[in-house]
């Protein structure tokens, strides 16, 4: 079911959002009965506190929602998403207490709180619905929410139902929705088409590897999104331990994120030429699996020594990034669940990104703060370049030593791109439920990038 606001014609229960510093003035505006009711329930405007004020017939006439102190609010985001999941079913509207970016965040939070993964559990009852506030762009927020829902749905689907073929089908469904075009190169056809590393990583699986290539738009600047589509990662011959393999259905989170972002771009009809490249593979174990110490020759001609078959994402991305460069785009963005090192560095809530351009970094950081999609700039640190140069080949896919793993992976990818380039090393998973983000797959960085595109591409 699409995420959408309630019909504005529906009778809606007003919500009064009250910050701690506004408590006295807000209570003064209530009727005597409402004030007495709030005092009887010790309403203090603490963050997330909810008071249902009854009408004369016992119905909910008004809702008071505590918005806490500025410090409390700063320790999280999407606070109205938690309110949405706690209120009884019905239609509501935000009457006062929020404006500007805070009001937009609250409205989006409400929409995102409505997402539930129901493919194997069946439908759930409809919860509290919100009438779109008058001062927000409701259509834009619905498009963004549904792009995020697409990302979550793809990540949450188990690998038994989301292999390379199914990821191609999802890409084609999105293309059909927006009159885009998709081409794919599948299985052994990758060899004469010169995508050797995509083929090598995926050849051990009985689910054929492929390169997916979506195009949309015929005018404006060129934006190419490249998403890592490893639909399941055993680690290959360097097999992962069970504890590390349990979440590997999410290893196509980069592909899921760029598809969600592509939906936003196409549905909003941004004036640009969009290309989405997804190397879709399953990293499996078989007699023909690639091995440690193998040396691969990439599409670009650079040779790569394999020192860990579990560092496969950068291999498939390298061939796709080389292809992206051949089209001379104005901006290339890769998104990938690439390294555990990034999680150690910034945890699961931040999307680390790499760029050589300070203006690009500033635009992304400003956009992220505006739309509550936190990102963090990481360095393309040139002194670490020799860590990815093994001597026997041009590049090493898994430098020894275990240090700066996210940085060396980003440096590896940069070797395959000449165009302006941004790389996101995302997690793609919400480890525990937070407001508007249930445990499971989650988009990271896409909304920040969408917000920054006008500045990045001069739209």
TrEMBL record:
Keyword Manganese among UniProt keywords: yes
Pfam families per the UniProt record, alphabetical: Peptidase_M17, Peptidase_M17_N_1
Keywords tagged on the record: Aminopeptidase, Hydrolase, Manganese, Protease
Domain Cytosol aminopeptidase: 308-315
Swiss-Prot/TrEMBL GO biological process terms: proteolysis
Any one Gene Ontology cellular component term annotated for this protein: cytoplasm
Keyword flag Isomerase: no
Signal peptide range: none
GO molecular function: manganese ion binding; metalloaminopeptidase activity
InterPro entries: Leucine_aapep/pepB, Macro_dom-like, Peptidase_M17_C, Peptidase_M17_N_1
Family to which this protein belongs: Belongs to the peptidase M17 family.
Name of the molecule in the record: Leucyl aminopeptidase
């Amino acid at each position: 079911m699409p995420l959408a606001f309630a019909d504005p014609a529906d009778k809606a229960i007003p919500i009064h959002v009250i910050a701690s510093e506004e408590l006295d003035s807000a209570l003064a505006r209530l009727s005597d009965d409402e004030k007495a009711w709030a005092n009887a329930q010790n309403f203090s405007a603490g963050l997330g506190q909810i008071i249902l004020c009854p009408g004369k017939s016992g119905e909910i006439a008004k809702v008071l929602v505590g918005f806490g102190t500025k410090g409390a609010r700063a320790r999280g985001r999407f606070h109205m998403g938690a309110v949405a999941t706690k209120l009884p079913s019905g239609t509501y509207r935000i009457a006062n207490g929020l404006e500007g970016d805070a009001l937009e965040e609250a409205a989006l939070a409400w929409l995102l709180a409505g997402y539930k993964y129901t493919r194997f559990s069946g439908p759930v009852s409809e919860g509290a619905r919100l009438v779109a506030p008058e001062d927000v762009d409701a259509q834009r927020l619905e498009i963004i929410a549904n792009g995020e829902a697409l990302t979550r749905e793809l990540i949450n689907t188990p690998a038994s139902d989301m292999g390379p073929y199914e990821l191609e089908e999802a890409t084609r469904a999105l293309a059909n929705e927006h009159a885009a075009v998709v081409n794919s190169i599948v299985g052994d056809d990758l060899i004469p088409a010169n995508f050797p590393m995509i083929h090598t990583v995926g050849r051990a699986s009985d689910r054929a590897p492929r390169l997916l290539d979506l195009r949309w738009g015929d005018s404006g600047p060129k934006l190419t999104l490249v998403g890592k589509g490893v639909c399941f990662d055993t680690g290959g011959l360097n097999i992962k331990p069970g504890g590390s393999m349990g979440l590997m259905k999410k290893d196509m989170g980069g592909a899921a994120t760029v598809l969600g972002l592509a939906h936003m771009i196409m549905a909003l009809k941004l004036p640009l030429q969009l290309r989405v490249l997804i190397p879709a593979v399953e990293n499996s174990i078989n007699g023909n699996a690639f091995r440690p110490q193998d040396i691969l020759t990439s599409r670009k001609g650079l040779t790569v020594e394999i020192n860990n078959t579990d560092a496969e994402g950068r291999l498939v991305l390298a061939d796709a990034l080389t292809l992206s460069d051949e089209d001379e785009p104005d901006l290339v963005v890769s998104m990938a669940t690439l390294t555990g090192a990034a999680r150690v560095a910034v945890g699961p809530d931040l999307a680390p990104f790499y760029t050589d351009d300070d203006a690009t970094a500033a635009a992304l950081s400003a956009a992220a703060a505006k739309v509550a999609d936190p990102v963090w700039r990481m360095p393309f640190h040139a002194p670490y370049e020799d860590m990815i140069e093994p001597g026997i080949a041009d590049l090493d896919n898994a430098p020894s030593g275990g240090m700066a793993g996210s940085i060396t992976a980003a440096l590896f990818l940069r070797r395959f791109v000449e165009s302006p380039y941004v790389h996101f090393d995302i997690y793609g998973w919400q480890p525990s439920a937070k407001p508007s983000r249930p445990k499971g797959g989650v988009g990271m960085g896409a909304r920040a990038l969408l917000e920054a595109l006008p500045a990045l591409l001069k739209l």
